[in-house]
């Protein structure tokens, strides 16, 4: 999951949790607020009424001298005054029921006793609990909506801000880590950011890439120089052996030994030439300017390789039907790519085995697969088959120095051709080449 | 024919000389570019074998000088620096051929023969071998007047190469280097030469026994002819 997504998700979830908690607590809070508000109103009303009584006398209310009562038409509030025992004392606010005109109603009632002219009076001011609670619902709704809106706003703000602040990071990932193919020397391009962590990351990554690239470069230079330097001594030895071979006074027995030397020298030569070729490919010294049809290419390879097929009595089926032209390729290299793959298919086949070369469009991409009925590659060795000088157990019996597939890989990489290997031990292997659209053009419309 | 060998590796220069003298060429050797430059300016050569990687001289400059002072000479570039561009540049500057080190002396000789054939036209182009006629120009083989149609390109290459070095035993290594030299692969010791020779014999013997194509036991093959 991306960092930004994680941050946004965390923000959203934490805010939702807090808000939900708040909304759940809201009825209690509102009720408490309502209660204390109501109570303070009741007290104010009491004080006002007592003021009236002081100003105008108790008889202003108590016309009959015994009691007074008044309520609003819907009975949501009432006031009553009554004379009580001289010793009776009450000063409370609480919930109680009252029977008003046959209706029993819940009230919040303030009860207060006070004395006027030696008489003791009880004042009750009531407010129906229904009216107290009726604001709770709407309040809750409004609070919920406002909060929800605020959450959405803050999430949006978070999103925008985090995407802004994390942009350098995604730039670093996009330009420096993904698709940055080794080995390729790139110029350092600073990623603009004011966040020092990202600056640090950017510079560190660049330094690492640089180090790795330098190492690659050095390795390539070394291989190239070493193989070049070996060419001259090999050349001298080869000429010497050839000249000795020509001499008339050399016995046949000696000639056979010279021949063996020549063979070994050839082996050295092959290895050196192959290493040189790989380093030349990796240093991009080959041009990609040729145009060739797949049919031509495959037939050229077939012509070259038919003697080997014949030698081991292996049949080769060429199933290349579409007319596909490869452009911007190197003919020599592609020839060697296919040659080595088919040559391997011969070498690691069983006697009287079969090889199938299939060219076909798979969706938008042209592919060539080479399938053999050979010994196959065990799964645990598959990751290593493209390593230089790696000799697999089963290939030890073959004349090979372990550079066939590395050549294949470097040529494929040079042309950006994908290679997939499927293999089952004892049944055979399939090497599938997937050509980039740039080399083949688009797939024909069906 | 006069050959100038420009090669800073003395051992290699001597082997080249030894081989060419044995094959009736007259050789001169220069171990550095300055000496070579002088020799080129004074003498006329038929062949100039030029090592591009001289320590004291830019090889391609020497090639330019050679083409100017010795326009008739055929230049063959010999180099260990088998850079792809060098080859193109060398051939652009008028080199007649290009051999990457290490090369076989026989290969060098066959390239020189090809140039002689092309430039001077002194080599026979149709060679008779007991009733078979090998035409090096058309690359065909006929038995009297009947073409031996089934001979493949590779098989013809082998016959032509052996014919060029007739009466000389060619090892399998030398033959494979000639016909598979540019191929980069993973094999050593693989010998498909035998299979090719077997095929050639089979195809030829449909017309007449090709006894001139000899197997030299333990060593290789040769074409024996008095022509």
Folded structure, characterized:
The complex is a heterodimer of chains A (446) and B (227). The relative contact order of chain A is 0.06. Chain A is 53% helix and 21% strand. By secondary structure, chain A is an alpha+beta fold. In chain A, the strands form 3 sheets. A 5-stranded antiparallel β-sheet of chain A has the order 1-2-5-4-3. In chain A, a hairpin with a 5-residue loop joins strand 1 and strand 2. Chain A has 3 domains: 3-136, no CATH class; 196-282, Helix Hairpins (Orthogonal Bundle); 290-440, Heat Shock Protein 90. Chain B has 227 residues and is an alpha/beta fold. Chain B folds into 2 domains: 2-119, Rossmann fold; 126-223, Winged helix-like DNA-binding domain superfamily/Winged helix DNA-binding domain (Arc Repressor Mutant, subunit A, Orthogonal Bundle), CATH 1.10.10.10. Helices cover 41% and strands 22% of the residues of chain B. Chain B is built from 8 helices and 12 strands. In chain B, strands 2-1-3-4-5 form a 5-stranded parallel β-sheet, with helices on both faces. In chain B, strands 6-7-8-9 form a 4-stranded antiparallel β-sheet, with no helix packed on it. In chain B, 37% of the residues are buried. The model of chain B has no long low-confidence stretch (mean pLDDT 87).
